[in-house]
Every structure is written in structure tokens, then in C-alpha cells.
Amino acid sequence: MSRRSVCLLAAPVLWGAECHSVQMIEPEGEGRRWWPRWRGPSGQGVVEDGPYPDAWSDAKHVRWKVEVPGRGHSSPVVWRDRIFLTTSEDGPRRSVLCFQRHDGKLLWRTDAPAAAGEKLYWKNSYASGTPVTDGERVYTYFGSGGVVAVDFEGRAVWHRSFGMVTLYHGSGGSPLLYRGRLVVYQDQREGSYIAALDCATGKVIWKTPRQEQVGWGTPVAVRACGQDQIIVSSQDRVTAYNPADGRLVWWARGNTFETTPTPVVGHGLIFCSSGRAGPTLAIRPGGTGDVTGTHIAWQSPRGSPFIPSPLVYGPYLYLINDMAAIATCLDAKTGNMVWQGRLGEAQREGFSSSPIGVNGKVFFTNDQGETFVLAAGKEFRLLHVNRFGEKVLASPALVDGVWYWRTEKHLYAIAS
């Protein structure tokens, strides 16, 4: 996967031009050094090789372990010596937490403005969205609690409310940073939208209505055919927006009714998994309007994840069917099956954490805190299983040879 900086200027390219180039837009500058957002600087759980241990437990390779107050399923983000999390307790009290990275000390807690709590699913929380940071401010999306920006000392900078979320099961997506703008979307029964806010002030730059009513995903920014696009995978279809003005550029149908996984890219394709073991779509970039009949390169019939996102690692696309605990490896270019294998005991909705690819291995973690370590490649090889002994619904952050894991009650630093 490319680690090149994103150029601020590009030659003009027609939106409808045929092309075979797409890459995730990664943070620029120092942001690539840390873990500033959901799924890391790569945006898709791929980590540069380093001295990360592949075996651990609640005692083995634990550098430190601290309690996390409240309840939340957001993942940690890291910038220099700070770790940021969100949590909720005492009803819908929503907060941003800051921990010291070298020892886990809780430095501060900042509450979001009070707001009513939306209806939740048993696997959801009032703090499920992962924060994002640009090194100056930390931005969080709390659903009905709105968007909150705080500085690195925990001082509130701005707050933007979009009203009560009317989606059953509550909200679940994370915000996206894009060139001084914060992009959020919320599909719900009424008033679905995607919006871009000014990072410094919280002012709405643009807000585009959406027709979809169900979805808990996170948007991604990609460079496709020489142009930047915001990609959203949600109910029934995948959509692409112009980040300058929020204009709808293209859409592809084929998703199922409920969609959560975050899109990933690689090998000239955009991969979007959907629904309760529904299909995965591989979409060629480019085009305008309805590209369903022209730009879907391949699609899998079933077996895709409901909650965890896919992983493109090397030539392969890795998926976990969290309805049956079945891991699948596909040839990313063709969609051909490479292998399938069961990971632990089959349990409906048994995986929430998204997979990680690092050091030639793929790591899948289930809700019981079991991490299945597989050799990346064309054969199903389970190397071993790590166990925390408590539930894990969040995904890890990896920085400087250390895994940062949020379990049900704790924050761990795992290192050799």
C-alpha cells in the first residue's frame, strides 16, 4: 500500500474518465507517524512492519494496564505521548478521555454538552465512534450529542449539533479528517445527511441530504482517477461525493439493508462489504451517475462481515463472517476464493473488532477477547490464539512496536 504524501494540486481529470487508479488518502506530515484515526494512518488496518509482538494475554507482554471509566466501543487514537478515547456513563453522559502513552495515566476528561440518549442496540454504546486528531485538536462524533472538538489540554473548542439521531440502534460511525474539514454522515429514519465542517470553527461548509435511512459506517477519502472523493458504503448502495461541495458523483447498487464495514482500497478497486453476511462489492473507480452495470468488477455472493471491516493485505482481501466465525481470503483482483477457515466457536455477531495486517500476519479478534493470529498468504494457517480474558469490541492502535487495546474495562499497552 502506498505511503506517499498526497499532493495538494492535481491535473484536472474528468469525473467520468476511465481509470484504474485508486488509493486511500492518508494523513500528511506528522500524522503518518502516529495512529490519528480509525484504522490508523493507512485508513484500513495495514501497519508498517515493526517489533510488534504476535502473542499476548492479560499478563504476558503487558507494558501497562489501566481502567477505563464508563462504557464505550470506540478505538484508541494516538498522537505523540497522548492516547484519546471516548466513553459514556451515568446515562448518556459522553466524554473524551486523554491518557499518557508511556504509562497509561489518565490526564483529563472532557464532557460533551448534555444531550438525550438515542435508542441503543446491546452491542452499541453512546461512545462507539472513534475520535480523530490533527495534532492540534481532537474531534469526536457522539450521535445525538453532536460533534465536539477539544484541544490537547482538554479545553472545549467548539460543538456542533445535528439534532436527535432517529436511527434504531443509535449511531456508530467515526468522523473523517480531510484537508482542514471534518466529514461526518448519519443515515436515519428522517433527515439523513453527509456534511463537512470547518475544523477550526465547526462551521458547516456543506451539507448534502441522503436518501439512505439505515447505516453505521465511516466515510473514507480516496484519490481516484486523479480526483479526490468521499466514499460512503451504506444501505443498498455505495456512494461517492465531491469533497469540495458535497455533490453526489456516482453510486453503485448491491449492498444489503444494514451496512457497517468501512470501505478499503487496493489493486485499482474499492472494496465494500455489507449486511449480515451479505455480498462484498469490488468497484472500479471513475464514472458518474449509476455505475452499477459498468464499474462493479466482481462481487462475492455472501459470507461478508456485518460489523468488522475488510482488510487488503498483499494480493489478498481478508474478511470475517461474524455470523459464523468464518474467515475468508479472496484474490483481491478477481474475487476468486483462496481459502476459508473457522476461527473459534461459531457465534452470531461474534466479532466486532476489525482485522490488522502486520509483519506478514493477519489478526482477527472476537468479542470474547480472543485474537486469532493467521499467517498471511494463500493457505489457511492458524498460528496461535491470544486471550485477554475480557470482552473486546474495539480495534487496536499500533505505534512504535506497541499494541494499544481497549477491552471492556481496560486500556492495555502490549509490547515485547
Quick summary of this structure?
By secondary structure, the protein is mainly beta.
Quick one: CATH class? Mainly Beta
- In CATH, the architecture is 7 Propeller
The average pLDDT score comes to 94
Task: Determine the fraction of residues in helical runs and give it as a percent range.
Answer: under 10%
Give the domain tally.
Answer: 1
Q: Let me know the CATH homologous superfamily.
A: YVTN repeat-like/Quinoprotein amine dehydrogenase
Largest beta sheet: strand ordering: 1-15-16-17-18-22
The chain-level structural class is mainly beta
- Poorly predicted regions: 1-17
How much beta, percentage-wise? Answer: 35-45%
Distance between the termini: 26 Å
Radius of gyration: 20 Å
What is the overall silhouette? Answer: globular
CATH third-tier fold name: Methylamine Dehydrogenase, Chain H
Largest sheet: 6 strands, mixed
